[in-house]
Design goal:
Elements: E1 6-10, H1 15-26, E2 30-37, H2 58-72, E3 76-80, H3 82-98
Length: 100
């Protein structure tokens, strides 16, 4: 039998992460949820719609993650990674893409 652990669950507001957190909680682990905020909103195209985990629909995902955490009775922490995501992911991708 394994010892119970403290588990950090990355919640996206979607089914997969929600079920994973629920299973870990049901197993008796202490589960803490976390969600990243990466959408800055400054590059929004006219008429842009929800697109996976990055885009103007982020607020809906964050709200969904809070609902899941509330139903599971676990805390949920939001981490603001907008600037880090921009420099480490988007800007890097853009510069590498332009280099061919």
């Amino acid at each position: 039998m394994c010892a119970l652990a403290k588990v950090l669950a990355g919640l996206s507001g979607g089914v997969d992460s929600s079920v994973a957190a629920a299973i870990m909680k049901r197993m008796g682990h202490e589960v803490v949820g976390v969600i990243m905020r990466i959408w800055s909103g400054d590059s929004c195209r006219q008429g842009a719609s929800r697109h996976a985990c990055y885009g103007p629909g982020e607020e809906l995902d964050v709200n969904d993650a809070h609902e899941v955490a509330d139903k599971l009775g676990i805390p949920l922490y939001e981490i603001d990674l907008k600037q880090t995501y921009r420099t480490e992911v988007l800007d890097y991708f853009r510069s590498e893409y332009l280099l061919g």
